[in-house]
Amino acid sequence: MSIDLQRFHATWFEESREGLDELETGLLALESGERGAGLVDSIFRAAHSIKGGAATFGFTAIADLTHVLETLLDQIRAGERAVDAPAVDAMLGSLDALRALLDEAQHGNTADQDLVRAAMQRLQELPGAPDTGGSNGAAEGGSGDLQGWRIEFAPAPGLFMSGNDPLRILRELEELGPLEAVPQLERLPGFEELDPLQAVLKWSLTLQAPVARSDIQAVFAWIEDECELELTPIQAAPSSAAEASGPVPVPEAAEGSIRVGVGKVDTLVNLVGELVVTRSMLQQLGDAVADPVLAERMGAALEQLERNTRDLQDAVMGIRMLPVESVFRRFPRLVRDLSAKLGKLVRLQVHGASTELDKGLIEKIADPLVHLVRNAIDHGLEDPAERSAAGKDPTGTITLAAAHQGGNIVIKVAYDGRGLDRGRILEKARERGLEVPDDPTDEQVWDFIFHAGFSTTREVTDLSGRGVGMDVVRNNIRELGGNVALSSRPGQGTRVVIRLPLTLAIMDGMTVAAGGETLVLPLASVCETLQAGPGDISTVKGQGRLLKVRDAYVPLLSLAETFGTASGPGQRAEPVAVVVEGDGRRLALEVDALLGQQQIVVKSLERHYRHIDGISGATILGDGRVALIVDAGGLARTRLLPAAA
Q1: How many domains, the chain?
Q2: Is residue 243 classed exposed, middle or buried when 0-12, 13-18 and 19+ CB atoms within 10 A define those classes?
Q3: 61, 150, 321, 438: most buried by Cβ count inside 10 Å?
Q4: Could you give the residue ranges of the DSSP H alpha helices within 32-165?
Q5: Where in the sequence is the domain holding 221, given as residue range(s)?
Q6: What is the CATH number of the domain that holds 96?
Q7: Segment 260-296, tens digit of pLDDT
Q8: What is the DSSP string of 227-255?
Q9: pLDDT tens-digit profile of 627-641?
Q10: Is the separation of the CB atoms in 382 and 421 below 8 Å?
């Protein structure tokens, strides 16, 4: 019988990367002083699962390195090894090597062999570390009478039907010594058509090797909650009944889960999007029904369809929502390593890690956050001596926080460093020939930092000083339909606030008419709508038209003129205005009429056409027409239009 293991590779690669993340988080927790059998056991199981899969699939380099790591973790679990800095450093270094080896195995990218050899050497140089050849462990009780083990193993129903490999257990047991296996098969008519290994009700195994009980339990650690396991030592002399362990009870299930490919979820999202468009088309047809009785029945059916569609949309979009913890958990290691390299003391605080965000956004927000955190440690936080001299805690604090606000997620990166040097930024801006206002506000000064190539660092290092970073942060976030704002106070610190839509697939929008075209404003960016009255509009030289909104003036732009769709003179005396906010700035958009609110399916304009300033995408309306989606933040950034005559 042959089993095609290739079909299990993708799942194992994904699970192994999750296991490495769990290992890293757990090791950092141990280093920070956290203890407890549950923590150590979870770390050990993650390493053991990676090692078992690597051995099964023939990834020898991964299996060898993980074997040494697993043994060290087992020593910690048994209380035989202290959690000290050299051990943690060596084990964290092995995780970097394992990630490189996983990438090589999955994508063919050659791993840095120097990195792998150095990681193995550091592990083996630790006192009491094993060789790569493996270890059978100590004999049960150290009595010398142990000959082997009888193992009764009963998998939970369906355990191996979900893709788990039963041969993995047998292979790992065979690594410990000679093994005899007798499977008890289920006797059902026609069952011979199925894989016989999947039909096993119970395994009776005999391991003829005097290994430790913990070595056998480690083999079953990855399914310990989904099986019954009874271990009976085989000894030359009779042993007490206490030597045998009883069956391991199967706990009541928690909510179950399945792994589904991202492509399948994306297909569901697209289908729901098409359903939203179809619903809009039916709504327009329903509005045209003349028979009042039929119109009433049609209206009730459409209302029910709208509720069902929205419930379906929420459910499908919920599948794509993941906690930002998957991004945040990489920063403890980054902060630890970088602060040690720079000789700084840094404390990382994380809030709101359970806040959910669309998977597509999570994958793309990681790089901007890495830029910000590296920048905070490198330039933002002072060294301990400087902080102490200023009367501050020698240990600086970086705070990562996430929260939902309306239809957006807000991510904050704050650090209690020296703050931004306003004078130095202005000096550098003038040196580079940037246009500097006569009396710039703090916001205008901080904005210079986001210019490409801008840097106030006098020395170029491998971490900073080359003018690469903050412009990349802003550009990446803008590509995601979000915006970034920065604030700082001298001697107290700096805060960067990133605002992103929860999803890029479907959103609520306000449709407006402007110059004969229908445009969509994202509802999350709309603050209010109003009819301008006499005297509410002023024209200021160099700033164009301003609209008075209560006690403040905001720039007033004509959407028709901005996008070149105006058929005649615009700038009506009393326009309909929609006040929007983007990139932390407010402006009013002049429109011809407000058409209504509806859900829209967002389509990429750049992918199908090209980039247009002030436009974030397009959508299909219920009547089949294409409508452009206005980017309020983009208009706020490019609103420097010629002054009105």
Answers
A1: 5
A2: middle
A3: 61
A4: 37-57, 60-77, 85-107, 113-124
A5: 140-242
A6: 1.20.120.160
A7: 777 888 788 778 878 877 887 888 788 788 888 888 8
A8: EEEEEEEEESS---GGGS--PPPPPPP--
A9: 898 887 778 766 543
A10: no
